[in-house]
Amino acid sequence: MTDAAPERDDNARHAEKAKKRKAAHDKKLEGMSDDKGLLIVHTGTGKGKTSAALGMVFRHIGHEMPVAVVQFTKSEKWNTGEAKLLAKFPELVTLHIMGEGFTWETQDRERDIAAARAGWERAKQLIRDDRHRMVLLDELNIVLRYDYLPMPEVIAFLLDEKPPGKHVVITGRNANPALIDIADLVTEMTLVKHPFRSGVKAQKGVEF
Question: What gap in Å lies between CA 71 and CA 12, rounded to an integer?
């Protein structure tokens, strides 16, 4: 019986602290909006940029909100797991695989620029389209880094033509500072360890 009193005291202190935290949190939420279309950027040298973005895509699917995905570097030949899964929701997902593989695979800058331009024109159509709640532009940062698309053009479109209620997610390493400046949410994945450096190739279900 003597141990019960200290335990009750600990529970009471915990409850009081939790109550104060909840009150502070509720106060922060007052006046906040939950209906703003966000510009989201996933960048950095670490793995997980596309994976995290696809997590949001699948959340939208779970809420039956239509989404669109444009993949700028992946090729249809890659037969990725996400493409297979997204194809199972044709009424909710618009998927365009617009790339031809990595730049070192094509070895043709003009072809890469043409593919990037075709992907961007399709992306603009999808962003303007009221049907889609979210548009994922997978690896757009890569084509911007190689100057396959003019950065000022992309920034101007996102600022001037992205509908207020639409989420746009952009992935890829080396996000341009100008893009980071206008984004609402920026996450940088940091590389700590990667199996590729130990001689392990990309694996089905992990990388693709």
Answer: 53
Q: Mind listing the pLDDT tens digit of every residue in the chain (208 residues)?
A: 456 777 777 787 887 887 878 777 777 667 666 779 999 999 999 999 999 999 999 999 999 999 999 999 987 777 899 999 999 999 999 999 987 755 555 568 999 999 999 999 999 999 999 999 999 999 999 999 999 999 999 999 999 999 999 999 999 999 999 999 999 999 999 999 988 788 888 888 888 8
Please work out, in degrees rounded to the nearest 5, the angle formed at the alpha carbon of residue 168 by the alpha carbons of 165 and 173. 160
Cα distance between residue 170 and residue 185, in whole Å: 10
Q: Are residues 192 and 46 in contact, defined by beta-carbon separation less than 8 angstroms?
A: yes
Instruction: List C-alpha distances in Å: 181 to 139, 146, 185, 208.
Output: 18, 19, 10, 30
Please give the model's pTM, rounded to 2 decimal places: 0.85
Exposure string for 45-61, b = 16+ CB within 10 A, e = fewer:
eebebbeebbebbbebb
Q: What angle do the packed helices 109-128 and 151-160 form, to 10 degrees?
A: 0
Nearest residue to 50 via CA among 127, 134, 138, 120: 138
Measured CA to CA, the distance from residue 162 to residue 154 in angstroms comes to: 11
- CA–CA dist 60, 56 (Å, integer): 6
Please choose, from the candidates 84, 117, 121, 124, the residue with its C-alpha nearest in 3D space to the C-alpha of residue 100: 117
